[in-house]
Specification:
Elements lengths: L5 H12 L11 E6 L2 E6 L13 H20 L2 E7 L8 E10 L4 H7 L19 H13 L3 E5 L2 H19 L2 H9 L52 E7 L4 H19 L4 E5 L6 H11 L4 E9 L12 H4 L2
């Protein structure tokens, strides 16, 4: 028995999609609605021209929006009907999605649907509270269900290698003025009226060092922006890498859907994620990671999972800006 009408379900899916995670909160998507079908399009004007030349992070972000719409439709009582990259002549058309047959949402779907607006990205260290192994296993199963793999890195030496690659990439990028200016472009000053980018209340002014040290993007570069983090929290948390067997545009969308499934499920258990894409933006470092630690699979996201009691703010563009 459907909870909402098809039209109401479409409206709920559109509103939910706004809250998907995206690189630097660029929100690089737009939507068009025809009847009961939503077209999800990549907004290439919001692509990071220095950091994300191939558009990989752009499509991961769009994949996260697609999974969010799927979840919202299921919560509304419909099984989503999805076509990914349906038109080769329209490369910016990521997918179409519409409500299909009525379907009763299960408990986990409803749980994840409740996290769509609540989930936040963390950009500092975590507390020493442990992420349950049972939850990590469930997150890995969820990623597998979307066609990706969530590799939890338990070996300390491997964790240190990933941290070292992140430090190396961050060190090189920090010396590149183009990278730095692109990051700063998406850092919102305090009290800014913009509805995109990373708010000053969502990143630390100076982040405490995790052990091992995973550096964050310097959104506060040459500014006194950001918040004062919890200095007692120093844990790196659980390090995990999201991978796919192949590395094409459809695989990047798959990675985005798997990522959002993991994040919503984790958030439902009060577990947050911090992202580290620096090493994945440098071809040789990404290839090293792929061949030396990931059995030839392609790394799409490096993340740390953990528990924090810090409240983060977030902003999203109004739906009226996204429809066209």
């Amino acid at each position: 028995m459907s909870i909402l009408t098809e039209r109401q379900a479409v409206e709920a899916a559109l509103d939910a999609a706004r809250w998907a995670p995206s690189v630097h909160n660029t929100q690089p998507w737009s939507f068009a609605v025809k009847g009961d079908e939503i077209a999800l399009r990549a907004d290439v004007d919001r692509q990071l021209r220095v950091e994300d030349v191939p558009g990989r992070e752009l499509l991961i972000s769009c994949g996260a929006a697609l999974y969010t719409m799927r979840t919202a439709l299921r919560c509304a009582g419909f099984e989503p009907v999805v076509r990914v990259l349906p038109d080769p002549d329209r490369p910016s058309l990521v997918a179409t999605v519409r409500p299909g047959a009525p379907a009763e949402p299960d408990e986990l779907t409803l749980l994840m649907g409740g996290e769509i607006e609540r989930r936040r990205t963390h950009r500092a260290a975590f507390t020493d509270l442990t992420v349950p192994e049972r939850l990590l296993d469930a997150l890995a199963l969820g990623a597998m269900g979307e066609g990706a793999r969530l590799a939890v890195v338990g070996e300390p030496t491997a964790v240190e290698v990933i941290a070292a690659l992140t430090r190396a990439a961050q060190g090189v990028q920090a010396q590149d003025r183009r990278f730095t200016l692109e990051v700063i472009r998406w850092a919102r000053p305090p009290a800014a009226s913009r509805s995109d980018g990373v708010p000053a209340g969502a990143y630390p002014r100076t982040a405490p060092r995790t052990d091992p040290f995973f550096p964050q993007r310097d959104y506060a570069w040459r500014h006194d922006w950001g918040t004062e983090p919890d200095r007692s929290a120093t844990s790196a948390g659980v390090v995990a890498v999201l991978t796919t067997a192949r590395d094409g545009r459809e695989d990047w969308i798959t990675a985005g859907q798997a990522l959002q499934r993991v994040l919503l499920h984790a958030s439902a258990h009060d577990v947050s994620a911090a992202f580290h894409t620096q090493a994945l933006e440098m071809h040789h470092l990404r290839e090293f990671l792929r061949h030396e630690l990931l059995s030839g699979e392609f790394p799409q996201m490096i993340m740390r999972l953990g528990i924090t009691f810090e409240e983060k703010e977030s902003v999203r563009r109004p739906l009226s800006d996204l429809l066209g």
